[in-house]
Amino acid sequence: MCVCVCKPVYASSLTDAQWAVIEPLLPRTHPSVGGRPRVHARRLVIDTISYVLASGCAWRLAPRDLAPWTTAYRVFAAWTADGTWARVHDVLRGRVRERDGRDPQPSAGVLDSQSVKTVEGGEEIGWDAGKRVRGRKRHLLVDTLGLLLNVVVGSASVQDRPGARRILTGIRRVFPRLGLVWVDGGCVNSKDATLVDWARQRENLEIVAVPRNADVAGFQVLPRRWVVERTFGWLTRCRRLTRDYERKTAHAEAMIQFAMIRLMAARLADEHIEPRGPIETEAARRLAEEHNDYPPRFHNTL
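The structure assignment produced for this chain is given below.
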């Protein structure tokens, strides 16, 4: 009978190849700085955060053979406050784009929002009358590959146009080549097209609306906008993101960044997830088709 104690490997845990991608980008504590020595390995802490993200469990319900939930939460909160997740995410996004033959700085993006329910209390909780959802709204700006450029989480009562201004304000300082953004038809309509003028004058951006066909009921695959819809699909594979369980909006944004870090680390580690089902297969086909529609000299500009 085996009496050895083996470290369990959960489906949410990072593989060795994924850890090799992420580990050099994480903060290091030099002995000269002082303080208590590290008790739990950083990889174990990251695996604990990843378990909470993928399983959707409460922090206190994390398995005891991982790092203590207090340690994992403290690291997650500290790295949210000092911008570690954002820095790691931005580095990996540039590497994924370069690996795909693109310029690290995108020139086009897609913007959309998603209203999700919240639990208990927290910051910025409101009512989305259109979706009939009480909770928060996630505003996402992604590139043409579906990789996250910026995320803003706020009250569900925030309309699309104010939300778009919030996420696009100062975006050219971060992405100087960005010049074109496709948006939902709700951001630009016949009654209010001020977002177009504001973006052109303040951020030197061209806003192009992609409205849905009112004559067609149900789900529609819309040009360009399907890219950001697929990103929402990637995020909701993590059960922690099917709702907004965070009390702070900064933590909600960090959870989204961490989910994308896991996804990009898998890509850079050559651990691609094959399309599952007809929707993902069609999305992969459309992405390859759109990429091939451009002349070779333009393949790295979007």
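Interim note for the steering committee: The first helix runs from residue 16 to 22. The first strand starts at residue 108 and ends at 117.
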